[in-house]
Amino acid sequence: MTLRLLSIHTLTITVPATEPKGPRRTVVDRVDLHVERGESLGLVGESGSGKSMTARAVLGLFAPGVEATGRIEFDGVDVLAMRQPELQRVRASRIAMVFQDPRAHINPVRSVGDFMTEGMRDSGVSRVEAGRRAIALLAEVGIDDGERRLAQFPHELSGGLLQRVMIAAALAMQPDLLLADEPTTALDVTTQSEVMTILAEVRRERGLAMLFITHDLELAAATCDRTAVMYAGRIMEVQRSTSLQQAPLHPYTSGLLVSRPDIDLVQRRLQVIPGRSVAAFEAPSGCAFEPRCSYAQADCRAGEPELVLLGSAEVRCGRVDELRGTLPHAVGGPDA
Amino acid sequence: MPELLEVRDLRKVFRGRGGHADVVAVEGASFNLAAGESLAIVGESGSGKSTIARMLVGLETPTAGSISVLGRTRGAKSPRTRERRVRAREVQIVFQDPYSSLDRLELVGHVIESALRLNPAVSRASRRQRALELLEAVGLQARHAGVLPRALSGGQQQRVAIARAIAVEPRILIFDEAVSALDVSIQAQILNLLADIRERSDIAYVVISHDLAVVNQISDRCLVMESGRVIEQGRTRNVLASPSEPYTRALRDAVPRPGWQPARSPSLD
After folding, report:
1. What residues in B contact A332, CB-CB < 8 Å?
2. Is residue B110 part of a domain?
3. CATH code for the domain in which residue B29 is found
4. Is B257 an 8 Å CB contact of chain A?
5. Is the CB of residue A307 less than 8 Å away from at least one CB of chain B?
6. What is the side-by-side strand order in the sheet with A67-74?
7. What is the extent of the structural domain holding B182?
């Protein structure tokens, strides 16, 4: 049996208390997730769900005071147990990250060429060779006039173009896993569609796996092999994307699908999930989603349901056996 | 009876500075808005949609063309206080980022009460009561009147911004990407709230958005803008179902949905 590329076990992340002597606050609560080689997994959640924290933990990126327990196995080695030099090697060569705001992650006074060749130069590649590779990488993300672009500065490039430069740079060290944190959220819809196409192409050509973090369930489901839904720091459901949209197993997933307005259907009112989402440390005992769930019963408050395997899907709902097949799904689906 | 809002040949040029060329943000935009109607202005960044919103509310001065509200054309001169008050009762705006549009040191209740001062239908003595009613109307509670904006979630802050805008009972309410940044579950609540407000009064909406699904849910008619020009307009349902312009079709095709095959658009810059 081949080793899974990424395997996260009972990852829990806490942040310092807001007041002195207060309890630490949990933001990610016993997350189990995996990504196979070459696979794309969408990680979806609303604000405070813990999706970005989970992704950053894979790179061992923690703000001061943040503590993580559990295991994050990348190619069989626990990232959380790695020392700095080892962690840096993994970050430099095997896991690459693309962020929401490329401008915040690129030095504005250095050229695109400097930015793209820096890593290669550090690992001993000559200047000429690094430049040649950078131009080839830019061509791979649809930028044909690479030579001209390398001489330009970040402010001379549009947001969409700059995001493609970031993707090209991420590919430079031939990573096995791409962590993409809301990479298209700040972009226009047509540019988003372009960037998603490019991601799909480079992934296919290179057999690159991707963990795609987004608030947009429709985008994740439309572009990733599987989609995981997080709520209050927990995984609520993981399924193949097509079945997630057509047969959601968790009332929260179903609620997210039906509360989004549709481009074709006009509804007088949208079906809403009442209340607001909560962070893990605000979640009640019992099922974290219970206060907002229209299917909740007294039992749902009694204890927190486990994430259980159901065929190839996983779901954390105490009533899954009764509700299975009955939850409303996306209105715009092909069978609607 | 005059049209509620009549916009004719609106043009806005931003003068280039430091050797940069002038930028034509809006070119020849014309449209009407009737009482009780909801009009969406759709487009991507740089299309000029937000510049139109800012001109409607008086934050930018048109370079050419006219904006008339209830038959009165707005002059290019800066209005006096009295005129400003009249205008505030005609057009209000809600922005994308509610927190930056709220005074962070002002209690939520005061935010609403200040806006109520512009509304002569509400006496000074009844302002407090009316503010609480407005908070309830947007799904908040009386206890929220006593907190600062930062104690509220993003969705709650946006409700405060909406309550403040409807406090003056404007004829036209503009939403400049006001639901774009909200979480999905909160966005649905706000969209329903906006539908409820329109059902209870003859308030008209101008909805600036890049999100075609939101536009479909909230507007009767829409304008599609590209590079400062209105390239297509009509009933929202028709424009979205059978767009006549390639650009509108490209916008539509870029919306992720089941079975979506994202595509590179022909132009890459």
Report:
1. 257-258
2. no
3. 3.40.50.300
4. yes
5. no
6. A25-35, A6-15, A67-74, A77-78
7. 5-94+171-253
Report the C-alpha dihedral over residues B137, B143, B147, B149, rounded to 10 degrees.
-30
Q: Which candidate, A62, A147, A73, places its Cα nearest to that of A112? A: A147
Provide the residue type at B94 as one letter. V
Quote the ipTM score: 0.88
How far A64 CA sits from the closest chain B CA (Å)?
A: 24
User: Token pair for residue B187?
Assistant: 């966005």
| Confidence band, pLDDT 50/70/90 cuts, at residue B268 | very low
Q: Nearest CA to B167 among B128, B125, B208, B141? A: B128
Strands A40-44 and A209-214, bridge-based pairing: parallel
Question: Edge to edge, what strands does the sheet with B72-73 contain?
Answer: B23-33, B5-14, B64-69, B72-73
Write down the pTM of the prediction.
Answer: 0.90
DSSP string, B172-196: EEEEESTTTTS-HHHHHHHHHHHHH
The pLDDT tens digits for A225-254 are 999 999 999 999 999 999 999 999 999 999
A299-315: pLDDT as tens digits: 999 999 999 999 999 99
B87 located within any domain: yes
Q: How many domains does chain B have?
A: 1
* Residue-wise pLDDT tens digits, B49-86: 999 999 999 999 999 999 999 998 987 677 788 888 88
